[in-house]
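debug: dumping io for the single-chain case to check the tokenizer round-trip. Nothing else runs in this session.
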Amino acid sequence: MSATAIPNRPPAELYLGGAADESSRLVLSYAEARRRLMEPTGRVVRYFPHYKAVAALELARSLLADGKPLALIGHSWGADAALRVARRIDGDVVLIGADPVAKPSLPLSYWQGRPASAQFVVHVDAVAEAPDRSDRVKSFGYLAGGGVHRAWREADVTIPTGLNHWNFAGMMAAKGADGKSAEDWLAALAPA
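debug: decoded output
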């Protein structure tokens, strides 16, 4: 009797940055550091700006077809893009929104609930204790886009923070009431 070894399929993390992330590099820098850290484990880590959601969707579909567990992580408008990607894929994903802000769109999309593909949803909510310019930009985004999508408001886990909107790395590390952070939820994403 012989056994066939099935190689582990390490998970994948796709990050989607918010408006102006390519200049601020908030999510881009985080994703690059995460990629360097995770590369030796075989975990796939990629970054996309929010306006390249179609490219993120194509990669997400490819990774899921390859049997890789997948997490979609977005900040601000990037969380809106991650949500849109999740709505268009088959397969289970972990969906993490760091201070999500809806893009201006048809009101119907704002009221849609959780995507069928989202096996678990984490919403990190930044309500700054000392608001700064990034929080004013977020407020403008709320006015233009209508706030936060229902899917984020109905997340499995909401992690409230007193952080400013720009502090993506802090949001990813912030602990919720259960003692877990978004980074902890990513660590729990097991190989297939």
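debug: round-trip ok. DSSP finds nine helices and six strands in the chain.
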